[in-house]
Amino acid sequence: xxxxxxxxxxxxxxxxxxxxxxxxxxxxxxxxxxxxxxxxxxxxxxxxxxxxxxxxxxxxxxxxxxxxxxxxxxxxxxxxxxxxxxxxxxxxxxxxxxxxxxxxxxxxxxxxxxxxxxxxxxxxxxxxxxxxxxxxxxxxxxxxxxxxxxxxxxxxxxxx
Length: 160
What we know:
By secondary structure, this protein is an all-alpha fold. Helices cover 72% and strands 0% of the residues. It has 7 helices and no strands. The chain starts with 5 loop residues before the first helix and ends in a 12-residue tail after the last helix.
């Protein structure tokens, strides 16, 4: 890549993302091109040429730099979260508490839903019912994600 250095001075994050073939490299170039009113398939060289023609474009690329940094931070956060969940499954695979707690949660959730559907509406505090049901549903979703998520190794894949 034969860039003259102007892009490196103004948008170092954009350039380093493109040079290391980051997963967000194409998005970063497209974002910069869109902000500079260039075609989506623009190259870093074309972006640098536009930067030479328009000195006001440095401010535009600064906002692109911030967005790229935010995307990289989000990507890193997601990667770390996935690694953390994978370790948790391995560490607690033989723990009986997780299984008993999950089963108790499902039983309590089913009982609570049955109870509120069979209780007269005049006796219900709907705000409390909605709050409790929302929290229980969130817990049930976490249990289902723990046991059935796509990142879980369910024995059908080789260990890495």
